Amino acid sequence: MECLHIETIEKPQIFKNGITHIRLECIDCGRFIKYKPQHIETFKLWFGKHKGKELQEVPKDYLEWYKKNGNDKKTIERINLFFQS
Description:
The protein is of the alpha+beta class and 85 residues long. It contains 2 helices and 3 strands. It has helices spanning 60-69, 73-84, and strands spanning 8-14, 20-26, 32-36. Strands 1-2-3 form a 3-stranded antiparallel β-sheet, with no helix packed on it. A hairpin with a 5-residue loop joins β2 (20-26) and β3. α1 crosses α2. The protein is elongated and about 50 Å long.
């Protein structure tokens, strides 16, 4: 019988870049299901002089600069979402 993953447990997982994601696992079989999306407000920069700051704490001109010059696509996506909200 295959597990239906009805109940999940949340486990924090820290990646190499310092960002913590919430890992959802089945409470019965322990199988990984997905990562729970971070809210934009809790996304923190993992680099530079604003390392550890949430996006709303970082000057907007710095975020605009990073959108044009940065090389981390996921961070750029987060910045774009931040400006849309």
